[in-house]
Specification:
This protein has about 80 residues and is α+β, with helices and mostly antiparallel strands. Helices cover about 15% and strands about 35% of the residues. The protein has one helix and four strands, in the order βββαβ. It is globular. The termini are far apart.
């Protein structure tokens, strides 16, 4: 049986606030598991651990839905970073 590689987080930092700590993505899903959106939270332990494909979906969603997306740097990081 193949294991799914779920060990990535999405981290977001504001470009103009260098000293501020990053926020992490928490994915919102419907009861049937369909992707609905993302909220960014400060607590890294409560952030959603996901696959690379799911993390890319979060980045794409944030670029599309957030009004000031250009003000943020959003990237995929490994859980241990």
């Amino acid at each position: 049986m193949e294991t799914i590689d779920q060990r990535y987080l999405v981290q977001q930092t504001r470009r103009d606030e260098a000293g501020k700590p990053p926020v992490f993505a928490r994915v919102m899903r419907s009861k049937d598991g369909k992707f609905e959106g993302v909220s960014f939270i400060k607590n890294k332990e409560k952030a959603t651990v996901m696959t690379v494909a799911a993390a890319q979906e979060v980045i794409d969603w944030a670029a599309r839905k957030k009004d000031n997306a250009a003000a943020y740097e959003t990237r995929i990081i490994c859980v241990g970073q």
